[in-house]
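Example for tutorial group B:
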């Protein structure tokens, strides 16, 4: 079955990453499957930041990891700069991964506690030596680029650093092999609010300085809006809406996007924006047995009969705005 449509994909000549009909399924016992990602298509121009947003369990992190082949998807195509990543095996696949790096949610636990900062950042160069500057020079250059003084932190262990400093080390480690695509998986959600803005600014700066394309995964629409050029909203393994940040915020077309936006707290009151409930009462259905038709129908206030029988495909509803809904807002 088709996924949720590909009308939002741009001309292949314009993009560096093109993902089509990505499917990730896991065995769930007794012949059942977890339908974690069900036919996702997306693309990215070189230097763009694509935000993947949705509630916990919507498949956004699994999508990001499947694009990076960590692990490879069950089905689908991932074309990066003309190379079909899903066909790579063994050494070719390992080598291709030097072009793709990840930044994780919890910076402290993603660093080896027994290694010094300098050893952590240098590790990739020991596995994949590169020409050019000596490894130590490259490590110090990157530590400075992420705002750390190599003389002060180079010999420290992760437990001697703050959460924000650890995330800076993670970013330096991710950049050491000069990747082209960076998957940022909830990179600020474990950090204090005061540090979040600094790390987001740093990622923006690194993107410009090192010509990176970013896949930015987060549950927080406010964070995603701030960094993204294009946002993909996901629900239960499917794409609901694709749009530029301003359009998505000002005119959300999918009932789920509208629900997410109403749940973003106002900065001054801490209350959900729009005064409405942060969530509908219904629980998110299980990805083992997702609803027929539109997967959001069990929580959707606009659902009608056709929503249970026919899957809505993405269609254009505005300039660079696409929605998969029979009755958009
Ligand atoms: S297709 Fe129907 S159930 Fe799905 S979001 Fe639209 S109105 Fe709601």
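The residue assignment follows.
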């Amino acid at each position: 079955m088709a996924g949720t449509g590909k009308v939002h994909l741009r001309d292949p000549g314009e993009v560096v990453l093109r993902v089509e009909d990505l499917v990730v399924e896991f065995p769930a016992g007794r012949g059942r499957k977890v339908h974690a990602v069900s036919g996702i298509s997306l693309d990215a121009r070189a230097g763009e930041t694509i935000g993947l947003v949705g509630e916990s369990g919507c498949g956004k992190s699994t999508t990001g990891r499947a694009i990076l082949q960590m692990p490879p998807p069950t089905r689908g195509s991932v074309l990066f700069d003309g190379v079909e990543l899903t066909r790579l095996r063994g050494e070719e696949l390992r080598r291709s991964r030097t072009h793709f790096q990840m930044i994780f949610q919890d910076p402290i636990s993603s660093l080896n506690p027994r290694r010094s900062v300098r050893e952590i950042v240098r590790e990739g160069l020991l596995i994949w030596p590169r020409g050019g500057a000596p490894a130590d020079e490259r490590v110090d250059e990157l530590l400075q680029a992420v705002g750390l003084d190599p003389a002060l932190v180079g010999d420290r262990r992760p437990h001697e650093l703050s959460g924000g400093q650890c995330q800076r080390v993670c970013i330096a480690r991710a950049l050491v092999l000069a990747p082209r695509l960076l998957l940022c998986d909830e990179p600020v959600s474990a950090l204090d609010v005061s540090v979040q803005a600094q790390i987001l600014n740093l990622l923006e700066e690194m993107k410009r300085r090192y010509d990176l394309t970013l896949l930015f995964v987060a549950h927080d629409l406010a964070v995603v809006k701030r960094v993204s050029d294009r946002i993909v909203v996901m629900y239960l393994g499917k794409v609901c809406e694709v749009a530029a940040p301003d359009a998505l915020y000002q005119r959300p077309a999918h009932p789920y996007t509208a629900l997410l936006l109403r749940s973003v707290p106002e900065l001054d009151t801490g209350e959900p924006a729009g005064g409405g409930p942060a969530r509908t009462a219904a629980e998110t259905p299980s990805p083992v047995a997702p609803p027929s038709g539109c997967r959001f129908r069990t929580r959707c206030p606009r659902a009608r009969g056709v929503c249970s029988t026919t899957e809505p495909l993405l269609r254009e509803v505005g300039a660079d705005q696409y929605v998969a809904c029979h009755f958009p807002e």
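The longest strand covers residues 33-44. Compare this with the pattern of hydrophobic and polar residues in the output above.
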